[in-house]
Amino acid sequence: MNIINKTLLAISLTSIASFSVYADTVIRIAHDSQPGSPLDKAFTSFEKDLEKTSNGTIDVELYGAGQLGGVRETAEMVQENNLQMTTAASVLLSPIIPEFSVLDTFYMFDDREHAHRVLDSEAGQALLNAMDKKGYHGLGYPELGFRSFTNNDHPLKTVKDFEGLKIRSAANPSQIAAWKAIGLSPIPLAWGEIYTSLQQGLIDGQESAIDSIYTQRFYEVQKYLSLTDHMYSNHVLFTNNEFWSSLSDKDKNLINASIKKFIKNQRDLAGQQNEDTLDILKKAGVIFNTVSPEVRAKLKSSLNSAIYEEIKQKTGTELYNLVIKATKELR
Fold first, then answer.
1. Do the domain assignments include residue 109?
2. What are the CA-CA distances from residue 331 to residues 109, 117, 228, 266, 311 (Å)?
3. Which residues contact residue 259 at a Cβ distance below 8 angstroms, ignoring those fewer than 6 apart?
4. How many distinct structural domains can be found in the chain?
5. Tell me, what DSSP letter sits at residue 98?
6. How many angstroms separate the CA atoms of 288 and 247, rounded?
7. What is the pTM for the complete model shown?
8. Less crowded by CB within 10 Å, the N or C end of the chain?
């Protein structure tokens, strides 16, 4: 975002905020999720709850559906305090907060509840604390869900079934190395290029959260869905550090209480939506298979062996060990 656009945005937001004449504190929140998504619904409830519990002294302004840009733009605006709050997938934050790289570990969590326990523990808080040095204050972890593979060639039932498939990959060296370790042929593509590439046969498949397979309409051009659950994906909710420090203890407590409700609500909505999406995909004719625990164990070993050293280096040995220890103790 260039300087002129940033200036115009700041003026626009200031003008909008001037209408909140009765509020002592204004919290502007931007996200790129679509209307009706779990994140959008949960933010709407958060707005109502916080304005009610603060008796109107805190005003929440929501800018959803990417109105103010994508993750990169909104993260920059929060850093500059033109926005006070946003969310981003941890994998998108790791280039600027390398400590979040630990969450790129494959098969880190046994299930959703296990992920919640770890992320809500001291280890999860330590990861949030790593945001401080970039001018952010981490608030918690909403949910995206487990990622699985789709493809047009055959069901993925054994490790050998992955060999030779052309799979979309993010332009991430660690991820590319991991896919190659199980015999895949990763092709780096932007998110918006996946559907067309699948449609034209440039790639055989992709991997993403279940809900994305529906919302991005991948199921229209993919025949098989193999439930590998190879990685748990989450959002990170964060605010501007200077803004947070300026708040009274009373307002911090009110906001934290509403955020606790927000995260539980969003996770519940995300879990239900993923279940509902599986039913929709089945009715659409997608052929399912669940990958066995034995095959998952083999995938876990191969995938993590390819990235272990790099992830540990990026995260830092002490923090890496803290998070991995929590995943074992909180099973």
1. no
2. 8, 8, 19, 22, 22
3. 46, 139, 140, 237
4. 2
5. G
6. 50
7. 0.90
8. C
Compute the average pLDDT of residues 185-195.
92
CA angle 163, 166, 170 (to 5 degrees): 115
For 65, counting Cβ atoms within 10 Å of its Cβ (0-12 exposed, 13-18 middle, 19+ buried), the class is middle
Check whether residue 264 and residue 225 sit in a common domain: no
In this structure, the answer to whether residues 139 and 185 fall within a common structural domain is: no
Q: Domain for residue 190, yes or no?
A: yes
Q: Are 248 and 172 members of one domain?
A: no
Is 223 inside a domain boundary?
yes
Q: Where are the beta strands (DSSP E) in the chain?
A: 25-30, 58-63, 85-89, 136-140, 143-151, 166-169, 185-188, 205-209, 224-240, 287-290
CATH number for the domain harbouring residue 172: 3.40.190.170
Query: Residues, the chain, total?
Result: 331
- Using one digit for the tens of pLDDT, what is the confidence trace for 245-293? 999 999 999 999 999 999 999 999 999 999 999 999 999 999 999 999 9
Residue 222 CB neighbour total at 10 angstroms: 22
